[in-house]
Design a protein that fits this description.
Elements: E1 12-14, H1 24-51, H2 58-75, H3 78-86, E2 91-92, H4 94-127, H5 132-135, H6 138-164, E3 172-174, H7 181-187, H8 193-226, H9 231-239, H10 242-264, H11 268-292, H12 295-306
Parallel strand pairs: 1-3
Antiparallel strand pairs: 1-2
Helix pairs in contact: 1-2, 1-3, 1-11, 1-12, 2-4, 2-11, 4-6, 4-8, 6-8, 8-9, 10-11
Length: 309
C-alpha cells in the first residue's frame, strides 16, 4: 500500500502535558499566569532599555532583543495550548503545526545566538575594556543581531520545509503541547534520512556552536578577572556577568536536562512536562534575573515607575 502524500487529510492531535481532564482547569490557570508574567516582564525590560538613555549600550541592546525573542518563544506554543484546554480539544491544523515548528525553532535558535552575542560583549568589555567602544560600535552590534535573526529565520524555514515533505500513514498523536520537528520525524512513515541529517547537523552547528562560543568567552573572562590584583576589582568585573551567566546556565542546563531525561525515560509526556522548563519557565524568569541582579535595570525601573527623568 502506498504512503499517502497529502498529509493535510490527517488530523493532528497535541496530547499536551496530561490527558487527565480533572487537572485541565489548573493547567489553564497556571500556564495563563506564566504566559502573562513572561510577556509583561519582557515588555517591561524592552520599555526600560528603550526609554532610558543610560541603557543605550550594546549589552542592553542585546538584552532587549533577547526579551523580544523570549516573548516569541512562549507565544509559539502557549496560546494554542490555552485555546485547546479552553475548548476541550487537542486538534491542531496541519498549517498550524508547520507554523509552530517555524516560530518555535526561530525564537529558540535566536535565544541561543543572542546569549552567545551577549557573552562576546562581556568578553570584550572585560578583556579589552580600552577598545570596547571601538569594537562594539553601533554597526557591529547591529550586524551581530541582524545575523542572529537571519540565520535563525533561514534555519527555521529549512526545518519547516523539511517537515512539510514528511508523509504520515495515520492520524498524528503528538505526546507534547506543541509540534516539534523531532516528534514529527518519529511519527513519519516516509524516509526521514534527510530530516535526520538536518536535525543532527543543526544540533551540532546551531546548538553546540553557540554553547562552545559561550564557554570560550567565559574562559577568557575568568582568566582576565583572575589577573586583576584587587579583590574589589575582581568583584566588580564579575558582577557585570552574573545576570547573563545565570540566564545561560538556566537555558542550557534545562535543555540538557530535558534531552538527557528523554533518552532515559520511555514516557513521552514526562519529557513534554520537562520541556516546560526551557520553553516557558526560563523566558519567564529572565526579566527577573536581570532586574534583581542588575543595578542599572533596577535604577531605570525606579525612574520609570516614579515618573522621574
Amino acid at each position: 500500500m502506498e504512503t499517502e502524500n497529502d498529509t493535510q487529510m490527517y488530523k493532528i492531535f497535541l496530547l499536551g502535558i496530561s490527558e487527565d481532564s480533572s487537572i485541565q482547569p489548573f493547567l489553564f490557570g497556571l500556564f495563563l499566569f506564566m504566559y502573562l508574567v513572561t510577556v509583561l516582564g519582557n515588555l517591561v525590560i524592552i520599555l526600560v532599555t528603550v526609554s532610558d538613555p543610560h541603557l543605550h549600550t550594546p549589552m542592553y541592546f542585546f538584552l532587549s532583543n533577547l526579551s523580544l525573542a523570549d516573548i516569541g518563544f512562549t507565544s509559539a506554543s502557549i496560546p494554542k495550548m490555552l485555546v485547546n484546554i479552553q475548548i476541550h480539544s487537542k486538534v491542531i491544523t496541519y498549517e498550524g503545526c508547520i507554523t509552530q515548528v517555524f516560530f518555535f525553532t526561530l525564537f529558540g535558535v535566536l535565544d541561543s545566538f543572542l546569549l552567545t552575542v551577549m557573552a562576546y560583549d562581556r568578553f570584550v568589555a572585560i578583556c579589552h575594556p580600552l577598545h570596547y567602544a571601538v569594537i562594539m560600535n553601533l554597526r557591529v552590534c547591529s550586524l551581530l543581531v541582524l545575523g542572529s535573526w537571519v540565520t535563525a529565520a533561514l534555519y527555521s524555514l529549512l526545518e519547516s520545509l523539511m517537515t512539510s515533505r514528511l508523509s504520515f500513514c495515520t492520524d498524528l498523536k503528538i505526546p507534547h503541547f506543541l509540534c516539534e520537528f523531532n516528534q514529527l520525524i518519529l511519527l513519519a512513515c516516509s524516509d526521514t534520512f534527510a530530516n535526520d541529517v538536518v536535525m543532527y547537523s543543526a544540533a551540532v552547528l546551531l546548538g553546540g556552536g553557540p554553547f562552545v562560543g559561550i564557554i570560550f568567552s567565559y574562559t577568557k573572562i575568568i582568566s582576565a578577572i583572575h589577573a586583576i590584583s584587587s579583590a574589589h576589582g575582581r568583584h566588580n568585573a564579575f558582577s557585570t556577568c552574573t545576570s547573563h551567566l545565570s540566564v545561560v546556565s538556566l537555558f542550557y542546563f534545562s535543555i540538557l536536562g530535558v534531552y538527557f531525561s528523554s533518552s532515559l525515560s520511555q514516557n513521552s509526556q514526562s519529557t513534554a512536562s520537562a520541556s516546560v522548563m526551557y520553553s516557558i519557565v526560563t523566558p519567564m524568569l529572565n526579566p527577573f534575573i536581570y532586574s534583581l541582579r542588575n543595578k542599572d535595570i533596577k535604577g531605570a525601573l525606579r525612574k520609570l515607575f516614579r515618573g522621574r527623568p
